[in-house]
Amino acid sequence: MVDALLPADCSDEHRRLAVRLSFELGQAHLFEAWPPAGQRDADKTQLLAQLATLEANYPGGLAAYIGSARALLGQAVRGENALEGWTPSVPDDGVDLQPGSPEFAAFEERGLAEAAHLAFAVPAGGLGERLGFSGVKFALPSEVSTGSCVLRVYASYILALQRHVERAGGGPCRLPLAVMVSDDTVAGIQRLLDENGYFGLEPSQVTLLKQEKVAALADSEARLALKGEYEVATKPHGHGDIHFLLHSTGTAQRWAAEGRRWLYFFQDTNTLYFAHHLATLGVTAARGAAVNMVSVPRKAKEAIGAVCKLTHADGRSVVCNVEYNQLEPLLLASGHAAGDVNDASSGFSPYPGSINGLMFDLVQYAATLAATGGRIDEFINPKFSDVSRSAFKSPTRLECMMQDYVKTVPPEQTVAWTRYPLEFGYHPCKNDILSAARLSAQGIPPGCASTSEMAVYHMHATQLRLLGAEVGPPQPASYRGVAVERGPAVVLDASFAPCFSLLEPKLPSPQRVRVSARSALVVSGRDVVIEALELDGALEVTVEEGGSLRVLDLRVANRGWEFVEHTDEEQAVAEETAAIRGYRLVKHETRRIHVRAGEHLRL
Ligand code: UTP
């Protein structure tokens, strides 16, 4: 009897929990090896305290966790498909948007009008084990031309939007940002914020929400796995925890009560989420959608989730993300004999690829959270070690994904999707350089630091091209086995242009702007207009707030910058941020134009 083994000073809460776990939840093994009361009391108390934390950190407590685990493990043991009975189709409530089109401009205009009511949330609790970088991913340079780290880029978009709202007469504007951290990332992210003055944000704007790990499970009866005698093994629960935390901390409710209307979710290494977030917001507002899933064209069988409408035999239907490994069997089982194939006309799967940029109607979100407690669909991925499927090779756990929130959206609400061209899409930095080179050799997107960096340049260069500027095209290149498309290194800071519509007036005669393929162009500062520019080399423009620059007709030709592939020796001793790229940037010659506050320059 666990009761008789508990420490004398055991709290009522701990006592009740131990009894419930032992007698109701099938967890008697946790206490089996306990010596009589009075012995190892400190260890016992430590285990009870850990169990109480696990109880508090899961919606519905350990009973709910164990109950869900048993249900999902039962399905896994029986080999059942979690999506049995559902038929996929392409959801019709979507829109394809091409930046530069009148439609895109109209939606971005609408988004700009709503910008004062935006809030942001990003899960950043992931360890990034695959990356070969010991710091937090937010600290990685998004590109090495400016060296701005990912979190600085995110903050700069928020700051630029605030300035836009304030200048448009909207009064003081502070757009809040919630960052989900974990034990693995909390110290690193806090340090990054502290050392950089919160990148210009006010500390009160930034809310860190800490996700806790969940209990690991030892077998298909959902017995909690022990790590030693007095500690339950724990594992990360996934990015879906962000919803529970936004709810349990009252953050979403507080924001809604403050009159905020929209909440944009994104991930921790893809800064291109901000290339179109206002157009996405515009679509969300125009469609009255509860959730708008940002997507890109997806090749059939490509390893990204697909936006699908699922219709059940009983008449229910839901629009949601279906993981790529579930889509093919689902299509085959529901009469699509060819499975996941590309459309002959577009060359892409008809199912949009979901990239985990999610725009929510915040008021509807807060109401749904109140009803669900922030709990979302989970899944389990046990690796069985025996044919009876009762034991695992190593403990497993329930996991959840941020995008699965849409499965809890009430049926009367709309889930929309908005698809952008690939160059405005998803180019995360996830893989170390050796894995990336292997993927590259197989023709699979490498998703690493170099491809992510080149994607940033390419997106900005594409924006200039779409306006009518002549910008040299990217050429195939390779750095330590990773194939990239290398074009001019263009970085248009958010202070210069937080969105495409606000870039347009900065280049009033774009056909007079020419940037050669080997060039580098970095522009930051709000009050900058470029009328005519001929660039063949490197140009860095910085205009402080309160200063202005009008480039009437400027020619810059210099030796410019060079991305130099590391030799084996250089690679072996390179700092991590350079080693994960496989190159270093050599700035041979740069034309620098720096305009201070109060200065007004015409060139
Ligand atoms: P990733 O798929 O990139 O996973 O997460 P990861 O855990 O960061 O990286 P690996 O697998 O260890 O290499 C996608 C997003 O979800 C966040 C990440 O920080 C990233 O923004 N995430 C992931 C969490 O916040 N918590 C988690 O438990 C897992």
From TrEMBL:
Belongs to the USP family. It is an enzyme of class 2 (transferase). It comes from the Eukaryota. One of its GO terms (molecular function) is UTP-monosaccharide-1-phosphate uridylyltransferase activity. Pfam families: UDPGP. Keywords: Nucleotidyltransferase, Transferase. Its EC number is 2.7.7.64. It comes from Emiliania huxleyi (strain CCMP1516). It catalyses: a monosaccharide 1-phosphate + UTP + H(+) = a UDP-monosaccharide + diphosphate. GO terms for biological process: UDP-N-acetylglucosamine biosynthetic process. Its cofactor is Mg(2+); Mn(2+). This is UTP-monosaccharide-1-phosphate uridylyltransferase.
